[in-house]
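User: Last request for today: this protein with zinc ion, please.
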Amino acid sequence: MDLKKIENAVLDILEAIGENPAREGLELTPSRIALMYQEIFSGINKNPEDCIEVFKEEQHEELVLVKDIPFYSICEHHFLPFYGKAHIAYIPKEGRITGFSKLVQVIEVISARPQLQERIVKETADTIMKVLNPHGVAVVIEAEQMCMSMRGIKKPGSVTVTSAMRGAFMNSPALRQEFLSLINK
Ligand SMILES: [Zn+2]
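Assistant: Here's the final one, the structure of the complex with zinc ion:
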């Protein structure tokens, strides 16, 4: 990541909004923002498929759910945060499973980019489908979008929910219902 270029760009923004970048409180802001971007955009050019390690567990074909995973991302339209909880479920096929922390890493890598909430659920579900090849995957995200809370329609506290269902979760309303009732407990 080109930290110097970010610093210069932030300096330009500070000037453009009518601020004095040399005043005490703002002096280090360009370099702080450059380091922050390096951290919160660390998922750019990373492949989330690399997060998943596949293990073999004899004939486990029951629902696996990791719920209430905290996540943070940046909306690509306004460069403001959105954040909340993610829930990921899958049903292993032929005993192929992965660690819970690996599922969390997938969503962390995908979230650490300029993003849309709709795309995070889709990319997370597709990544797990591709690497684990399970019977099905379900991903739900509940988030507050700061670009809806701070600006525009200004509706703080409103929660946006997005979901992606693949395989068995798409084909079986009963399974989808089981998943939704588990995450709403
Ligand atoms: Zn936005």
